[in-house]
Design goal:
The complex is a heterodimer of chains A (about 300) and B (about 575).
Chain A lengths: L1 H28 L13 H11 L5 H13 L14 H36 L4 H15 L2 H19 L12 H31 L2 H9 L3 H13 L1 H16 L2 H6 L5 H11 L2 H29 L8
Helix pairs in contact in A: 1-13, 4-5, 4-7, 4-10, 5-7, 6-7, 7-9, 7-10, 8-9, 10-13, 12-13
Chain B lengths: L1 H44 L11 E2 L4 E6 L14 H10 L4 E3 L5 E3 L2 E6 L3 E6 L13 H12 L17 H5 L10 E3 L4 E5 L7 H4 L10 H6 L17 E7 L3 E6 L14 E7 L3 H9 L5 E4 L4 H6 L4 E14 L10 H9 L3 H9 L5 E2 L15 H4 L9 H15 L7 E5 L3 H18 L3 E5 L2 H10 L4 E6 L7 H4 L16 H12 L3 H17 L3 E13 L3 E2 L2 E2 L6 E2 L4 E2 L5
Parallel strand pairs in B: 2-11, 15-16, 15-17
Antiparallel strand pairs in B: 1-2, 3-4, 5-6, 6-8, 7-8, 9-10, 10-11, 12-18, 13-17, 13-18, 14-18, 19-22, 20-21
Helix pairs in contact in B: 9-12, 16-17
The chains are: A mainly alpha (about 300), B alpha+beta (about 575).
């Protein structure tokens, strides 16, 4: 078990190193650099700036310096936000993305399980049709459309009621989080609903449920203990990757709802060619994803005795 | 048989009913649990958040809420270059000379000044104070300007101080900063020596790179000057009292500001939202959360439905097709450029293609809002009248073919940005020149920084380019196509142009100076250095209770310095 864990961890470190290296060289190959600005610079000013940021060194030297700093956990100072360290940016803004992401996952998981159970219970009847229709919508409509539409919905709602029930954008209170988290979790919720539905149907037609019914076990007990409990297992297993994906993928929602999360920096840094922030956010997100995947594998081994970790 | 099946159905019905009840119960539990989790998370988020549920206008507290387009990246005025930092700095700082509601220069920290051929003198007012109560002195300007020009500061806008004696040499590391031609004669007199005559120096000093910095405070910040609200000193109508990075700012009225009768009427301005999403801003405005927002043309019907008062203003910039005048390019040929010029008409581009109601068809490099000697420059020096003439254009094209000795023109590279407007314009030109001249243009679409890099390297035949003003004088456009200007990406080089620009830079007699700009304008057209496309304008809406809000062509894009709340209309 420990041997396996350490092996996976080493693989993870290797993966992160690979991500960092690939990003580093790809980024430096894009035409332009963080210093280009629509006001032209003299060669001397440019040379001063390059010296200040160490961009005058050969690329490979820059790479080794970068790796050295990376080992110390130091990503340097942002090129566009010149007074802020990349570490500060991550420390201040990742928690916001994380809170939004966790909430979205909670919505997705509870919503997915409950709705999935409901559709299975009322299979081929009205609730099933309605929910499954919404599920198709939830999976196929991209989040920027849902985000924009729901924001418009909020404005209309507030106007109709004559006061602000739910804020249209911003961050800070429960009310600010509600709609963005729902939007962010929506497609995962839809996916989980389908997963839960098929898993529920499989369980319902299984031998032990039929046995329980014929034994005269009370319906509520069969439903909770024999059906829900067994059907929910596959849902739990996809949660790990879903948390990582949601937490790192909230850029559009953050933009539309003016939420001060890390996703915005992640995307804007690429547009601005802000080298240090690109490296910082990419490596951080990469490491986070890799760690979540390892964690899920290990947890599998703990809950499901059929998975042997030693292999 | 039918009996048993009905029993089974009944049993299933019973099961579904009681299981459904159980599921409903679980749903209730789940909602309660989620609510509890949300409560805990909101406590955790409290520190990073804005808790902004305030209104656009809070009459009781005399405060307003606005949105910023991005987190101000650089609040050290010596190094700031972007629009967002400019907006904040223009409210919390003040230079030697300021401007009034109509963007005309008025005294700032300096109560009077004198500009001579060889230099300038500024007499500073007694009651201009820093936000800690210490007077703003001439030494603060000397320190700040030396710092801007110090190569170690690596200020990208250092060039704007080059009219000062020795500035360029200091900035390029050839002279020590102490040799800069600026001197404090006591606390309240600032003496400036010029490198060359600079009649427009009064326009320059209101730019933020010329703002003062106090040496003792700057040193106490240990290199973190401008990084946080308490890492700055203020001398403007407002002071920054709170700055949650990436999220919110609070600007409060500066009680020590000397000109309180004319500026800074609000007790508080809150920048509660940072977003570039124009739809989100529109929704915030609709919901009464922010006082103003700008509109794109697809939003105008919504705005009219809401019966909003829609305002327009010019954002200052001019856009044009810039040719590559380097030796090996076809676009170096005058007949070729003349053919393209004659084959197009900017009114068609603006009115039929772009359809942005706030845009003005481009006729010249010098936008309509610039001042001439006593009134608008365009009135005093009307642009050359342009008439589209495809027949004549084709004649010039034939001449170009002869001169270049080619039968067929190879495809030309047209470099453009990736914004919807520039794509639209680029595609229009592609089609226009194909139809009218049989020319093939290849579009090279690049994101902002890559386009700049390609322009710098000269990798284009024609580029969709533009220019925004730094200061309120014709020269901010006038010297763009001098042979020594690095901004001249197409490397246009004409001794005649250079000589007119030298006069425009240094002539002290205003009429003669403006005449030189008139000649520059004529030459730009006749020599087809560029083809003007449009002057960019902006449509916007403001809460009707907020008066004297301005959008500016020069300086901060939005200006709340003169704004006040008036509810009498309600």
């Amino acid at each position: 078990m420990w041997k396996y864990f350490i092996k996976r961890l080493l693989q993870g470190v290797l993966t992160v190193w690979f991500i960092a290296t690939a990003t580093f060289f790809a980024m430096h190959n894009v035409p332009g650099d963080p210093l280009s600005n629509d006001r032209a610079m003299t060669e001397i000013t440019r040379a001063n700036l390059e010296a200040k940021y160490g961009l005058d060194q050969p690329l490979f030297t820059q790479y080794t310096i970068f790796l050295g700093n990376l080992l110390q956990g130091d990503f340097g100072i942002s090129f566009t936000q010149e007074n802020r360290e990349v570490n500060d940016i991550i420390r201040e803004h990742f928690p916001v993305s994380a809170i939004l992401g966790i909430l979205a996952v909670i919505f997705a998981a509870t919503g997915g399980v409950l709705l999935g159970a409901l559709t299975a219970l009322y299979r081929n009847r009205l609730p099933d049709y309605v929910i499954m229709f919404l599920v198709i919508l939830g999976i196929s409509v991209p989040s920027f459309v849902v985000a924009a539409l729901s924001q418009l919905g909020l404005v209309t709602l507030n106007t109709a009621l004559g006061r602000t029930i739910l804020p249209v954008a911003g961050w800070g209170t429960i009310l600010h989080m509600l709609v963005p988290a729902l939007v962010l979790g929506l497609s995962t919720m839809a996916y989980l609903t389908r997963l839960m539905r098929s898993s529920m149907l499989e369980v319902t037609s299984s031998d032990y449920v039929r046995t329980a019914k014929s034994k005269g076990v009370p319906a509520t007990r069969i439903f909770t203990h024999h059906q829900l409990r067994n059907a929910v297992l596959p849902v739990v297993t996809v949660l790990g990757p879903a948390i990582a994906a949601i937490t790192t993928g909230g850029f559009v929602v953050e933009l539309v709802f003016a939420i001060p999360g890390l996703g915005r920096y992640f995307v804007e840094a690429v547009q601005q060619l802000d080298y240090t922030v690109i490296m910082g956010t990419t490596v951080f997100y990469g490491a986070f994803l890799v760690f979540m995947v390892i964690l899920v594998d290990v947890v599998y081994g703990l809950i499901d005795p059929r998975v042997r970790l030693e292999q | 048989m039918s009996d048993t099946s009905s029993v089974v159905v009944d049993a299933d019905e019973g099961f579904t009913r009681s299981a459904g009840k159980q599921l409903a119960l679980y749903a209730l539990y789940a909602i309660a649990a989620v609510a509890a989790v949300m409560f805990v998370l909101s406590l955790a988020a409290g520190g990073a958040g804005s808790s902004a549920t305030g209104n656009a206008i809070d009459v009781e507290n005399n405060s307003i809420t606005i949105a910023l387009r991005e987190e101000p990246p650089q609040m050290d005025a010596a190094r700031a270059t972007d629009a967002s930092s400019n907006v904040v700095l223009s409210h919390v700082m003040e230079g030697l000379i300021s401007y009034d509601l109509d963007a005309q220069p008025i005294p700032g920290v300096a109560e009077r000044w004198e500009i001579r051929e060889d230099g300038a003198t500024f007499w500073l007012r007694e009651n201009a104070l820093w936000s800690d109560g210490v007077p703003v002195t001439a030494h603060d300007f000397v320190f700040s300007w030396r710092r801007v020009l110090n190569p170690e500061t690596a200020s990208q806008y250092a060039f704007i101080l080059y009219p000062i004696k020795n500035a360029e040499a200091i900035n390029t590391g050839q002279l020590p900063v102490e040799t800069l031609g600026v001197r404090a004669a006591g606390d309240r007199v600032l003496e400036v020596e010029f490198e060359r005559p600079t009649p427009y120096f009064d326009k320059l000093v209101s730019y933020l790179t010329y703002f003062p910095t106090r040496e003792d405070f700057f040193k106490s910040t240990n290199g973190r000057y401008g990084a946080d609200a308490d890492m700055m000193l203020y001398n403007g109508p407002y002071v920054l009292t709170e700055w949650v990075h990436g999220s919110t700012m609070r600007w409060e009225k500066n009680p020590l500001y000397w000109n309180k009768e004319n500026k800074g009427f609000l007790d508080e301005i809150r920048t509660a939202y940072i977003t570039q999403d124009i739809n989100a801003k529109l929704n915030l405005f609709k919901d009464g959360q922010i006082v103003d927002t700008h509109l794109l043309s697809p939003m105008l019907p919504t705005a009219m439905e809401q019966r909003w008062q829609i305002d327009r203003s010019m954002d200052g910039s001019v856009f044009y097709l810039e040719f590559n005048h380097r030796d090996n390019r076809i676009t170096r040929n005058w007949n070729f450029r003349r053919a393209m010029q004659l084959a197009q008409d900017s009114t068609e581009l603006v009115y039929k293609v772009l359809k942005e109601p706030s845009y003005i068809p481009g006729t010249t490099l010098f936008p309509a809002w610039l001042n001439g000697v006593s009134e608008s420059f365009q009135k005093e020096y009307p642009p050359v009248e342009h008439k589209m003439n495809v027949q004549k254009a084709r004649e010039h094209l034939a001449l170009a073919k002869q001169e270049l000795g080619i039968d067929e023109f190879p495809p030309l590279m047209m470099l453009t940005g990736d914004t919807p407007i520039s794509l639209l314009a680029a595609e229009y030109y592609q089609q226009l020149f194909r139809e009218n001249l049989g020319l093939e243009l290849r579009l090279d679409v690049q994101i902002f920084k890559q386009r700049l890099e390609k322009m710098r390297q000269g990798e284009f035949d024609i580029v969709l380019s533009g220019w925004g003003p730094d200061y309120n004088d014709v020269l901010t456009y006038g010297d763009l196509f001098s042979s020594w200007n690095l901004q001249n990406r197409g490397r246009y080089n004409s001794p005649e142009m250079d000589s007119w620009i030298r006069i425009a830079q240094s002539e002290l007699e205003p009429k003669k100076r403006m005449d030189a700009f008139g000649e520059i304008q004529r030459l730009l057209y006749e020599d087809v250095v560029i083809i003007p496309m449009y002057e960019r304008g902006i449509s916007f809406v403001v809460d009707p209770r907020l008066k004297d809000f301005r959008r500016r062509s020069v300086g901060p894009e939005v200006d709340y310095n003169f704004a006040y709340i008036d509810t009498s209309g309600q």
